[in-house]
Design brief:
155 residues; alpha+beta; Nuclear Transport Factor 2, Chain: A; six-stranded mixed β-sheet; 4 helices; globular
Length: 155
């Protein structure tokens, strides 16, 4: 049986840990690794795209990161209950033409008893920015612990 710690029911500490683990995974930009955090029958709404199942999630992520270059993400816990977590986040990337964007979003997550995400509902808005307006400049990969949070950045 697959499990993904921490397991529900969540406390503030374990919900915060779950959010950081998700952020770390997405910043690693490995679709196969990231997709393992989701149940085999996971259901997503990501903007106007609907994803059904872990295999579709991995394909979605591979396509996303092929288009969103220099991707860097910060997630922040917004609220939680027994097996649900709400997050807000921002990420920066540039497209194939070198145009930079900061995407702002909110996600609602639901987990099964094994800590795998069964539902993910994401609402996201893209804001064109100039390269010199970027806030997320750490080396690609995991965000360093000393990097300011969204709240600290005023986002």
């Amino acid at each position: 049986m697959e499990q993904r710690q921490p397991l529900p029911p969540f406390t503030r500490e374990t919900a915060t840990q779950k959010v950081r683990l998700a952020e770390d995974g997405w910043n690693g930009r490995n679709p196969e690794v990231v997709s393992k955090a989701y149940s085999v029958d996971t259901k997503w709404r990501n903007r106007t795209t609907f994803v059904n199942g872990r295999e579709e999630a991995a394909a979605f992520l591979a396509d996303k990161w092929a288009k969103e270059h220099e991707y860097r993400l910060v997630k922040e816990l917004w609220a939680f209950t027994d097996n649900r977590i709400a997050v807000r986040y921002a990420y920066e990337y540039h497209d194939d033409n070198g145009h930079w964007f900061r995407a702002y979003g909110n996600e609602n997550w639901e987990f099964d008893e094994n800590g795998l995400m069964t539902n993910r509902h994401a609402s996201i808005n893209d804001l064109p920015i100039k390269e010199n307006e970027r806030l997320f400049r750490w080396p690609l990969g995991r965000r360093p612990d000393e990097t300011p949070s969204l709240s600290e950045l005023g986002l």
